[in-house]
Amino acid sequence: MSTQEQPARPIEVGAAPGVERLILRYGLLALFAGVTVYFAVTEPSFRSFNNIVSILQSISIVGIIGLGVTISMVVGGFDLSIGANAGFTVMLCAICLVMFAWPTIAVVPVALLGGLLIGALNGALIVRLRVPDLLATLGMLFVLQGVQLLPSEGQSISTGLVLDGTEYTGVFTDAFLYLGRGRLFGEIPFPIIIFAVVAIVLWVVMERTRWGRQFYAVGGNLEAARLAGIRVDRVRMIAYIISGVLASLGGIILAARIGEGDVGAGSPFLLDAVAAALVGYAVLAVNRPNILGTTIGAVFLGIMLNGLTIKNFPYYTQDFVKGVVLMVALLLTFGVRKLR
Questions:
Q1: Which class is 19-338 in CATH?
Q2: Is residue 91 within 8 Å of 148, Cβ to Cβ?
Q3: E strands within 281-332?
Q4: Which residues cross the membrane (predicted)?
Q5: 59 vs 56: CA distance, rounded Å
Q6: CA dist., res. 25 & res. 333, Å (int)
Q7: What's the farthest any 2 CA atoms get from each other in the chain?
């Protein structure tokens, strides 16, 4: 037998020793539960029904956009334009409602169609023209950030906007505002319902259907998926279209929540959505982008920030906390198995 040292094989989750296996599978969930219990015990207001609803409402937009970027990550890509897409949708909704006085029944389909076209353009650049995904979607980010400012000459759009001597008197209709502010049965904010429905539908599709297995096969090994007969270009195109549509859906809800076309409104959602998706890697040691993990990641970040706010931590610590949570998730995903 050769005495030459053999390269170490990676430790698979299923073969890891007891303690390491538990850490890998349940470490993030244990941290999640511990943080939640700590806030609930030390701050009675944290565990109130209204605060729980507030947390879920606050993360609904991030969650929806995060689910979109998760789909692009499943096929081995990455969509950097999601935040700008959401911001563009906010301005598009405001233009249609205030400047054109369109009804809600026309505005929502137009906004979703805009997200679909953005996703299709991203997919065409990446899949057809072979532009690297980060470069293509970064370019789209800058295009969307610029184009949303052109119709209003850089101004936010609300009732009474004056451009070139013309006053626009259209309003955000009650039906449209309900999408961001309405409550089902007078208790549950409508954005939470939308987030839950989107998450459940995507989880079923990605984890329980042939389509979902094709998406993961493409992301796992593109050439092997091609040889297996999967139409990989079509699957990748669909992934970017889904990402674009979900980003626009998040933008619609955001527009309905703030009630005006606020320039740059979507910018903060890129990093939060990506953080939720990456934290999801560590949930149950899946070590891949997944719908359940992203959902839990979004809720976890929402609970952390809400708890810190209640405990009067300075606002400028929030990014630091999100960074620490993300680093812990990455450690649990990639680092713990290197400890042996």
A1: mainly alpha
A2: yes
A3: none
A4: 22-41, 53-75, 82-102, 108-127, 134-151, 188-206, 237-259, 265-284, 291-308, 320-336
A5: 5
A6: 9
A7: 89
CA distance to 20, 96, 331, per residue, from 335 (Å): 11, 49, 4
Which residue bears the tokens 């297996």?
Answer: 228
Determine contact, residues 46/59, Cβ cutoff 8 Å.
no
Per-residue pLDDT of the chain (340 residues; tens, 9 = 90+): 444 444 444 444 444 457 777 777 788 888 889 999 999 999 999 999 999 999 999 999 999 999 999 999 999 999 999 999 999 999 999 999 999 999 999 999 999 999 999 999 999 999 999 999 999 999 999 999 999 999 988 899 999 999 988 999 999 999 999 999 999 888 899 999 999 999 999 999 999 999 999 999 999 999 999 999 999 999 999 999 999 999 999 999 999 999 999 988 988 899 899 999 988 888 877 888 999 999 999 999 999 999 999 988 888 887 888 788 878 877 776 665 554 4
Cβ–Cβ < 8 Å for 155, 89: no
Helix, strand, coil in percent for the chain, rounding step 5: 75, 5, 25
Residue 85: burial class (beta carbons within 10 Å; 0-12, 13-18, 19+): buried
**β-pair partners for 168:** 161
Contact 145, 90 (CB under 8 A): no
Amino acid of residue 170: G
Tokens at 74, concatenated: 């499943």
Q: Rounded to whole angstroms, what are the CA distances from 330 to 33, 70, 271?
A: 18, 16, 15
Instruction: For 271, list phi and psi in degrees, rounded to 5.
Output: -65, -40
Q: Which tokens belong to 70?
A: 């998760």
pTM: 0.91
Q: Report d(CA 177, CA 250) in Å as an integer.
A: 14
Helix (H), strand (E) at residue 99: none
